[in-house]
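TODO from last week: model Riboflavin biosynthesis protein RibD.
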Amino acid sequence: MSTAQDRRFLALALSLGRRGQGRTWPNPAVGCVLVKDGRILGRGWTAPGGRPHAEVRALAQAGDAARGATAYVSLEPCAHHGKTPPCAQALIDAGVARVVAPLTDSDPRVSGQGFEMLRAAGIEVSTGLMHDAAAEDHAGFFLRTELGRPLVTLKLATSFDGRIATATGDSQWITGPEARRAVHAMRMRHDAVMVGAGTARADDPSLTVRDLGVSHQPVRVVVSRRLDLALTGQLARTAAQVPVWLCHGRDVDPVLREAWEGLGATLLPCDVVGGQLDPVSVLQALGAEGLTRVFCEGGGALAASLLAADLVDELVGMSAGVVIGAEGLPSLGAMGLARLAEAPRFTLRTGRPLGGDVLHHWRRATFG
């Protein structure tokens, strides 16, 4: 098969894998396409909760027709026995003749062993095609596997001059309905939505995905050293229905801890550095629970701490054509920078109009 055809079918596998983003953690969101004589026999992507895996779903569609087919998979097929048998063995048993996958799985239980199993069974294995696109799709899974933390996307919706509210706290709405709808779509593609305690107290947010017809909701994470959050707010009232995880200091008031646990929240003790929760400890705690992709929506202190610690992988800005002035609330807290050379820098990926606003998407140079 030609490189152009390989690229076309592998691109389809990648797009299928993205359908699972936000729903497969702690497993990667993988896509698989089975093709023979130019005809698609089966398609699959990782199911919610991480299983069945993409290859198994595609093989179930193809049935006996999979024998002699090419499998296009967006990540190396797994090689270990977990809650399900290895996908590499499933492909071998199905009699596929060739596997095309862009890159190796960084999970030490796999990490090249899946490809070795396939080659040992006489299956042709082709790797490297669309490597960068696949690495981008799986960056959160790789970060958790290699560094123990999830990928962090920081979203800042601001006025033209970088403010998120007037001096009186009026903020609804700086950006328009199209931008707000885009935020819900971004939430849907992440495992969790995260805010700081100040934002939770000031806005009483629900942090759910709305108006997109979805049944699944991301985990809602609040970073609060003292757990000084309203026990009657939206998060507290819905903690038993939609997961709420609270990252807090280890010296938190046991009465507050018991109250939140009684409401159904999951509590994650984290380290305190300089009087504030250590963002590294927070992300390590979230990674230990299985999260691979976190969508942070502020507030300013949390956003600044993540940026200062070089923990923001992607930066999403939504800028409105309104000017608030210096007395308005800034989108970021103090970062203590003395020189411009110390400031975190990001590379522009895309920028486009979005309704009456501008959406711009940035990535740090050391992404992934």
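Done. The domain at 3-138 is CATH 3.40.140.10 (Cytidine Deaminase; domain 2).
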